Amino acid sequence: MKTVTCIEDLRELARRKVPKAFFDYADSGSYSEETLRANRADLETIKLRQRVMVDVSERSLATTIVGQKMNAPFALAPIGLCGMQHGDGEILSAQAANDAGIPFILSTMSICSIEQVAEATGRPFWFQLYVIRDRGFSQDILARAVAAKCNALVLTVDLQVLGQRHRDIRNGMTVPPEIRLKNVLDIASKPAWAFSILRSKSKNFGNLAGHVKGMEDVTSLAQWTNSQFDPALNWKDVEWIKKHWPGKLIIKGILDVEDAKTAVKLGADAVVVSNHGGRQLDGAPSSISALPAIAQAVGSDTEVLFDGGIRTGADMLRALALGARACLIGRAYVYGLGAGGRAGVSKAIEILQNELSVAMALTGTTRVADIGPQVLVGGKPKKAARKRKA
Question: Is residue 166 flagged as an active site residue?
C-alpha cells in the first residue's frame, strides 16, 4: 500500500481499486446529498480549544460502552454490502477490530453471514437488525445472533422506507454485479478486487439467502428493501424485540429528543444519534447538530453514541465533547477495506486512534472520560457526570 497519511488517502485508493457501483454505494447519500454534506461541514465548523503547558505524557483512549471495555471510543459501524468492497469484507473488518480491541457491528444486509463471521473470528461481535415484514425471519435471525454469542444488538429504526440514492440507480448497482459491458470493463480494470470476490465465502446477501422466501433470485438491494422492509414498524416492535433478545439493546437512527426519550423508556441501553450517514431523509439535520440536545435530554439515563461524518480523530473529539460516549465509524473504515483489505481497515483504525490521541494532547486532555465542552472554543468546563438510573 502506498504511503497513507489520512482517511482521505484511503478513500482515493479505494476509489481506484473498487468498481464504481460499489464504491459509490458506500460513498454516496440520498437525493441531492444535502445531509451527507452537512454531516462533514457542521463538524468542521466546531473549533477546538488549544491548551499548552499541560502534562499529557500519559494518555489513554480506553473506555467502556454497554458494559464492554474498549481500547478506543469507537466501533466499526454496520455497513450493508461490506463484502463487496473487498472479498470477505465483514470477516476482515471484524478481525481488524478484534486486533484493535474495539467492537465490530455486522449488518443484516451483509455479504458474509453471521455464522461465517463467527466461525472466522472466534470472538463476539455486535449485530445490527433491520426488522422486515416477515417477523418469523426477524425472530430467527435474532436466535442466530444469540447462537453466535453476539454481545449487543443494534436496532436500526430509520429505514422503514428507503431513501433514493441516485448514484445506485445510475450505476445499476446489483449483487452480484449485473453482467453488462460497462460493469465488465470496470471490473476487468480491477483484477485484485475481482480475485478477492472470487475467493470469498459468500457472494450474495449471506444472512438472507436461504432464509427469506424468494431471496435467492433478488440481486437489487433497493428492490428487496422496498418489498420487505416494514413501513408499519413502530415503538411496540421494540417491546417484541426485547422478548427475543436477551442482551444489550442499542437503538440507532435517533435525531429527535422525543424519540430519544421514548427509546430510553423502552429500555434502550444506548441510543445512536444518526441520520444514516445522510442516506435517508435528505434535508434532515446533521448528526452533530442534533447531538447536544439529545445528550442533554437522555445522557444521564442511557449511553449516547454518535454516527455521521467522522473522518478524523479531531471529529471524534468534537462528538465526545458534545456528549457522546463513543462513536460509530462507517465510511472511514470502508475506504480502508476497499484500499487494502484487512490491512487497510487496520490502517484506518490506527489513523483515527493516533489523531484522537494527538487532538486530546493538544487540548490538554489525557483520558476519554475527561473530554467535555471545555475542549471546544467557547465551551464551558465539564460538569461532574450524574449517575445513570439503574
Answer: no
